[in-house]
Write a structure and sequence with these properties.
single chain, about 130 residues, mainly alpha, about 0% strand
Length: about 130
């Protein structure tokens, strides 16, 4: 379960990073590496190059990729990832869906479910004992 969850998270992070870079880097990489992003004034009036940078290299993609790799690393060592990872992914996806509309990211809900199932299997709920 942990392995599948980790790979789903890696897939989403890598997919976003690669897709966004393919979409934005050809037009804006020159500006990114020329120092054009430095000293931007009002963040509400960012340039197209700045917006493209935040959409690609500085987006959630690299961090999601990192979280997925950490989940895989933990799984390889038979360590169940903490439940807060699954709950945070769930909240983030749900807020993103409500605010931003449909996207491929709800696949992360499957990963979160797998992580929660693994945590439950590792630490089952205490059972009530019959009074006797």
């Amino acid at each position: 379960m942990i392995k599948w969850a980790g790979w789903l998270i890696v897939l989403c992070g890598f997919g976003h990073l690669l897709g966004s870079l393919v979409e934005t880097a050809p037009s804006h990489a020159g500006a990114w590496f020329s120092g054009e992003l430095w000293g931007q004034g009002d963040p509400l009036e960012m340039s197209h190059a700045t917006a493209a940078f935040w959409y690609s290299g500085y987006s959630f993609g690299p961090l999601l990729l990192l979280v997925g790799l950490i989940v895989l690393w933990l799984g390889r060592r038979n360590i169940v990832p903490p439940q807060f990872i699954a709950w945070t992914l769930t909240a983030w996806v749900m807020i993103g869906f409500v605010v931003g509309g449909p996207s491929p990211l709800p696949i992360l809900l499957i990963a979160a479910g797998l992580l929660l199932a693994a945590a439950r299997r590792d630490h089952p709920a205490p059972h009530a004992h019959a009074a006797g």
